[in-house]
Amino acid sequence: MIDHSLVKRFRQEVGDRLAHQRRLDQANGLPTMTGEDERQFARALISQVLEEHARGEIGLGRTPPTVEEEEALAAGIHAALFGVGRLQPLLDDTQVENIDINGCDRVFVSYADGQELMHDPVADSDDELTELIQILAAYSGLSSRPFDTANPQLDLRLPDGSRLSAVMDVTVRPAVSIRRARLGKVFLSDLTGNGTISPDVARFLTAAVAARKNIMIAGSTNAGKTTLLRALANEIPPSERLITVERALELGLDQFPELHPNVVAFEQRLPNSEGQGEISMAELVRRSLRMNPSRVIVGEVLGDEIVTMLNAMTQGNDGSLSTIHANSSMEVFNRISTYALQAGERLPIDATHMLIAGAIDFVVFVEKRNDYHVGGTLRRYVSSIREVNGCDGRVLSSEVFAPGPDGAAVPHAPISCMEELAAHGYTPGGW
User: Fold this and answer.
1) Which of 182, 217, 240 is the last residue of a domain?
2) pTM of the model
């Protein structure tokens, strides 16, 4: 067990010495340390502080920390400085799927095998938990995001790619949910290997991306929509210029220059305490069209940006990708219509359906199911793919892949753009 009061104390000492060194470097005209240089210097400071502590304990006639205890303290201090404090061990565990925190000592962890277990506290008090989130909000993303009484909601991307959502003051205790990005650099072959898609669906999606079809990925919360979006994006040739638009940076396509050397990542900016400075998702989508994109990728559609995005898809930016929350592939059209009604354009249903029909080529539905009859294994899989065929008062579509005997998508109906897909190597059932 780590003495977290010591970690907190030593973090402050190391942070103070690090800040002092920065000021000295600046006064002497020395270049600012890079992130990696700062981490290396912090490690040296941590060793120095722990050595001073050990000597102090011996001087007082007490037993100094063991080698193992010192290593644990060093890891804890480093995590507190550069990571996410006592959450770091959970984020380092590759089997952790989700972390739900209902106050500092009510921590529930979901694992890849479907288990959900209660975990040790991640802070000594709710105030300390709030302080940790505030520190993360200040340094994650492209701009500092406030988390306080005036701004009780927060969404951000952690350094490892995980998505964090937090609220305070609208709940009795601060509440935090972290959804892990367990598969960062992911390909369709990986999703075939873990059963998310069949080889036939993988070939179809590969051809659809190559044919520059506009694809909307739908599913419930935590179904794996973003993971599938990353895999589809990784089918896009490296020669193409990609622009991603997100509420909080999550996709991270720019982190893999060998796959995507030309990427611009846009992140929504929230208003300041005076209500000024906001840049909405809809504005960012409009801005992206002026940045010479080959494809525009909208991380998640949750509101009025849908109209701007659909217009973008019909203006020559073929091959766009996005995700949306929905309970079925068919329900996607109603969900889009609802969002469009909330937009400034106030599009009527008929106009929205015409816009959908002209913009979206395929809807891919990802399902999440806990198969209790096989030991509680959590399954994520593509169960349906719907092709948009036109509009006649409503969106006309056909389910070209439908759920098979085990729920996974299998070929079901003819594909109207089969010739285009065949030109990119797809034939149903094999090559």
Assistant:
1) 182
2) 0.72
